């Protein structure tokens, strides 16, 4: 049904309306539609705002959505996507359409048919030719479907998945309707009809609804990535609020992988182990490091001069059965992708504990591999795994690849883990220890030592120095008691300990640790290697 006043509309809108049931428009016509001009009268959305009682009976969304000039660009797109136009044309299926106004559509950082991934893969010609058209339409479909909530009337606070599968709800804030979690303002309601409503979205905040994972908020202190865009980051970081981490005196700060300030201030370094060329360390460093000598926490004067995240290392292991990345840093740039791809890519990412989970979904997607985390720590997950790349391990030991075993030890976190790598059963292995136990300065003197020297510490909280109780220390020891190892690799650069009696040193350190903490009767004193 065409509105009677159509002749008063610019011809571009006429084209949009006439496209209703035909084949999808070619991309060049869609691009042209973005040049639409807004007339001052109709650009005031309140003109079309019906009062709460007005529901036009017998009229459905497809009849009215083309009438509001302020949303003409978006309503044109709804007609290009068959499942969407079909739905809006179906009197028996209700929907709330979240229609961005024309300004919002024009001001999007990326056009709705664009996906940065396509440019990465296909270059500047990503949307040329038939394949390009198909890609553009696929992206347009996702864009439009993100704006259709399959419910109306839609109650405040009620969560629904849009047609593209994103969960949304709305809240009243300062007398305004805001679509959550992106916090996008609804400026008016253009129509209320028999099968739903058309809500108009604000130009400035719309961009929050359209972000890629590279735009997601990352906590600068710990490197954890959250399911909220940097334009509206979470209120706080639960990892840093926990006593095992800290918020620096300068306060909670956020960035994202796409954020300009980060891309110019962070880079990753790659160092191959001088004793074993199959082991490579990846660390993040600020391009302009801070010169302060302050201790951790106090030295975080600015986020630009600090590395993104805690400062840990990811360790690439080139095993005979494929590459494993043990632990992770948040920063992932082209240099890192190239480095790892040149080493043969990844079969698996395995992470010791939540402090190093960081941006693991980004890494898993980039390298097309699974990521292994401990199920018992899942309360610390901050992102939904939409592509099913996470494996949450429940077994005490788990074979990642032949010779590569994930060992749950507990203590620092319930799922705090070791990774044991032994390429030949006859040879003692390597133990990757992260924060599950901590190499301490006295342990790096690789000489014969008198009894009574210590090599490791066992803390619940490292930066805040809260020790573990005797049963947790015993649990850590027991988890590795049946494994052989002569080398240990800590969570940070330099923390490698190599010695024939390393296992003896672990047990000795555990006994010293508990005795000096005043635990005279702990069961660990009965243990032998
Ligand atoms: C569809 O929307 C109309 C108009 O608001 C309403 O009267 C009706 O109850 C809705 N139907 C369903 C199934 O929600
Ligand atoms: Zn944090
Ligand atoms: Zn930790």
Automatic annotation (TrEMBL):
Residues 58-205 form the FAS1 domain. Keywords: Signal. PANTHER family: METALLO-BETA-LACTAMASE FAMILY PROTEIN (AFU_ORTHOLOGUE AFUA_5G12770). This is FAS1 domain-containing protein. Residues 1-22 form the signal peptide. The keyword Signal applies.
């Amino acid at each position: 049904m065409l509105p009677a006043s159509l002749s008063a509309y610019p011809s571009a809108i006429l084209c949009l309306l006439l496209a209703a049931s035909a084949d999808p428009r070619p991309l060049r016509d869609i691009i042209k539609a973005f040049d639409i001009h807004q007339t001052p009268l109709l650009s005031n959305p309140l003109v079309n705002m019906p009062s709460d009682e007005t529901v036009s009976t017998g009229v459905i969304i497809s009849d009215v959505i083309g009438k509001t000039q302020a949303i003409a660009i978006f309503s044109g797109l709804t007609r290009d996507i068959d499942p969407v136009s079909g739905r809006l044309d179906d009197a028996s299926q209700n929907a709330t359409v979240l229609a961005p106004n024309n300004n919002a559509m024009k001001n999007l950082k990326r056009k709705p048919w664009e996906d940065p991934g396509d440019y990465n893969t296909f270059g500047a010609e990503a949307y040329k030719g038939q394949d390009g058209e198909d890609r553009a339409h696929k992206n347009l479909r996702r864009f439009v479907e993100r704006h259709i909530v399959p419910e109306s009337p839609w109650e405040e606070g009620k969560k629904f998945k849009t047609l593209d599968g994103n969960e949304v709800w709305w809240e009243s804030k300062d007398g305004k309707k805001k679509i959550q979690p992106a916090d996008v303002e609804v400026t008016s309601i253009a129509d209320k009809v028999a099968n739903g409503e058309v809500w108009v979205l604000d130009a400035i905040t719309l961009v929050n609804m359209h972000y890629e994972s590279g735009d997601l908020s990352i906590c600068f202190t710990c490197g954890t990535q959250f399911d909220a865009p940097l334009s509206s980051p979470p209120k706080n970081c639960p990892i840093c609020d926990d006593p095992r981490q800290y918020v620096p005196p300068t306060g909670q700060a956020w960035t994202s992988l796409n954020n300009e300030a980060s891309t110019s201030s962070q880079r990753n370094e790659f160092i191959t182990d001088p004793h074993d060329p199959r082991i490579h360390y990846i660390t993040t460093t600020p391009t302009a490091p801070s010169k302060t000598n302050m201790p951790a926490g106090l030295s975080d004067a600015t986020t630009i001069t600090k590395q993104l995240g805690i400062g840990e290392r990811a360790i690439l292991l080139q095993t005979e059965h494929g590459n494993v990345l043990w632990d992770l840093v948040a920063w992932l740039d082209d240099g890192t992708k190239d480095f790892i791809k040149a080493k043969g890519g990844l079969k698996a990412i395995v992470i010791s504990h939540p402090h190093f989970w960081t941006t693991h979904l980004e890494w898993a997607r980039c390298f097309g591999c699974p990521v292994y985390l401990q199920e018992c720590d899942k309360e610390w997950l901050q992102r939904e795994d939409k592509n099913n790349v996470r494996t949450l391990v429940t077994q005490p030991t788990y074979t990642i690849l032949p010779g590569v075993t994930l060992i749950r030890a507990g203590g620092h976190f319930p799922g705090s883990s070791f990774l044991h790598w032994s390429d030949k059963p006859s040879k003692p292995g390597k133990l990757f220890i992260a924060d599950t136990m901590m190499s301490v300065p006295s342990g790096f003197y690789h000489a014969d030592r008198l009894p009574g020297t210590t090599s490791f510490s066992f803390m619940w909280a490292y930066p805040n120095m809260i020790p573990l109780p005797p049963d947790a220390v015993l649990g850590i020891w027991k988890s590795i008691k049946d494994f052989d190892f002569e080398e240990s690799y800590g969570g940070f650069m330099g923390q490698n300990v190599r010695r024939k009696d390393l296992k003896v040193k672990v047990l000795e350190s555990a006994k010293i640790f508990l005795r000096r903490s005043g635990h005279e009767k702990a069961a660990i004193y009965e243990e032998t290697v």
